[in-house]
Amino acid sequence: MSKNSIACSSVCYSSAILIALHTSLLASASTTSSSSMIEAKALLNSNWWGNFSYTDHCKLLGITCNGAGSVTHINLSYYCPYFDYYSFHPGKLENMNWTSLPNLEYLNLVECHLTGSIPEEIGSLSKLTRLDLSTNYHLEEIGKLKNLVEMNIHGNILSGPIPSSIGQLTNLTSLHLSSNQLNCSIPLEIGKLQNLVDMYIDQNILSGPVPSSIGQLTNLATLDLSLNHLSGSIPPEIGKLKNLVEMNINANILSGPIPSSIGQLTKLTHLRLSSNRLNSSLPLEIGKLKNLVLMDLGVNSLQGLIRAEIGDLTQFDYLDLRHNLLTGKIPSSIGQLMNLFHLDMSANQINDTIPPELGQLSSLAHLNLSWNQLLDQSLLHRIEDLDLSYNHLEGQNPQYGYDCLPPSLAHNKTARYEARNGSKKKIAMFTPIISLPIIVFLSFLAFACFRGHKAQKKQIETKAMKNGDICSIWNYDRRIAYEDIIKATDDFDIRHCIGTSGYGNVYRAQLPSSKVIALKKLHHLEADEPAFDKSFRNEVQMLTNIRHRNIIKLYGLCLHNRCMFLVYEYMERGSLFCSLRIEAEAVELGWTLRVNIVKAIAHALSYLHHDCTPPIVHRDISSNNILLNFKLEAFVFDFGTARLLPPDSSNQTVIAGTHGYIAPVLAYTMVVTEKCDAYSFEVVALETIMGRHPGELLSSLASQSAPASN
């Protein structure tokens, strides 16, 4: 073959390759373009974004595409509040042709007011690994989402049973179905989710037993089944969860024993089984849980002795065995729990003497042994919050520096007790919180709160409450018995809890007079800390001197050995935060009402800053701390972190407040001024108008202004 022929053949061959390659690229580009057009059409037909050009679909709010123009991320969690402004709304998930989005990896539609069910087509998205549809309130059904790694659908109105098809989600590592209306029993198929690390199915209305198949979830680290109607016994298969760190099955109707297999959960740090009907005795195997930090078995029917093996749990800082049927004596081995901070064994049938080893626990700050049959006590003078009332204690008490019996020892075997100096003192038969700073503060409070009622002061201070309880209410019904509060709230049952605030939970209580009040009950653990004492003083001191129509009214407080709470005016519509996020309530908040809410907050802050001497800075203005009455009028709430601004003071402080509402400048200067509230007010004002927290908007504005400041 001649050289010319070879050259011609080579050129022809190369040309053929180039032509084929070009044709392939054109075909690929055509395919990519076609796929992109299909995806754009799917977005257009959903009507979520209104009308737009096909070429612009990757620039839509919340859309992220790859280099080929294919949609990989849909994140509308921030943009949903703008939908009404632009006259479009996600509506139903069924409106989207999900099969046209084959490369979708991430779908986040938090708080987008979705309705209907989760379509099965989402389950065909083979690349979808993360799905977050939480807090939509109106999703009704779980779909078949086989490839998911993370699923979060908490805070909707999902009802009906958890489908058995959930067992097909074998790639799941995180499952959040809490705060819905799921009922019936937990399906056995839940045991097929063997990659699951975190499972939250709390706050539903699930019934029936805890399935034994749950023991197959050997990678599980967190299990939360609390606040349901689960019954039957705890399955022994629970002991197979060797990686479990936290277990919470509080507030169900479980019965039977705590299985001995629980001793196999050697990584467990938090065990919560309170408010059930568990009976039998404490298993010996509990002593094997060497990493246990918190154990709450309160409000059950546990019987028998308190095991000496409990002293082997040296990591303990919180132990609650209250309201059971435990008998015998407190084991001396409890003296080995050197990290123990909180110990509550109240309302049992414990007898004999209090072991002296308890007095050696240097970390123990809260001890409640009331309502038992204890006969004697030991050196417990180090404990800040001590309650030994309602026992059989008697005799000399040389360890206390009181001239008469401390309230923590009231209601014991005799009405007389020998004080330190050997003289006989009559016991005052009442049982308030006994921390000395609180007692001193109560004296101050009596003066501050009743200074406008001097004519009645003597009668108020000397009149004994029934059954020895102290509950001081002013500008309302004068006095309300502690028992009335307990009855109205079913002993502060969670069914009456309407929210959380500052250092405690807030409850609704309807009194025998048919009047409704709000109660802010302070948490036990937090009530033991110095920060709590300061917060409590602040809240009462501020509110007893404040008079403004847009600031919540404080009616009084109640001090009792079992609990402490503040009594407030009741706000029928709850917090602004919730009203903005529940669709039915948000619809009621038209523009005029929203503007009036913002104006009310502004008037309240203006009063605090300019009409109070010295000025008061709230320091925790947030939508959670703005309450609405039945007229949708706004009131500022929660003065636990408030601070007076005396003149000639630097006003330096630690940061306090709610994340997302704290003025950024405070992180640098640590100086409290009225501007701290002003910034928080601006955030709440934007949130009120937009319908949700403007976090990403503020971050975007901050990032845009940063280069300009350089």
TrEMBL record:
Give the UniProt subcellular location, in the record's own words: Cell membrane; Membrane
Q: Write down the top EC class of this protein.
A: transferase
What Gene3D superfamilies does the entry give?
Phosphorylase Kinase, domain 1, Ribonuclease Inhibitor, Transferase(Phosphotransferase) domain 1
Mind listing the GO biological process terms from this record? defense response; response to other organism
Q: Which PROSITE patterns match?
A: PROTEIN_KINASE_DOM, PROTEIN_KINASE_TYR
Q: Which SUPFAM superfamilies match?
A: Protein kinase-like (PK-like) (SSF56112), RNI-like (SSF52047)
Its main subcellular localisation, reduced to a broad class, is membrane
Record-linked InterPro entries: Kinase-like_dom_sf, Leu-rich_rpt, Leu-rich_rpt_4, Leu-rich_rpt_typical-subtyp, LRR_dom_sf, Plant_RL_S/T_kinase, Prot_kinase_dom, Tyr_kinase_AS
Q: Where are the transmembrane segments?
A: 427-450
Please name one Pfam family that this protein belongs to.
LRR_4
GO-annotated cellular components: plasma membrane
Q: What is this protein called?
A: non-specific serine/threonine protein kinase
Native species? Camellia sinensis var. sinensis
Species lineage: Eukaryota, Viridiplantae, Streptophyta, Embryophyta, Tracheophyta
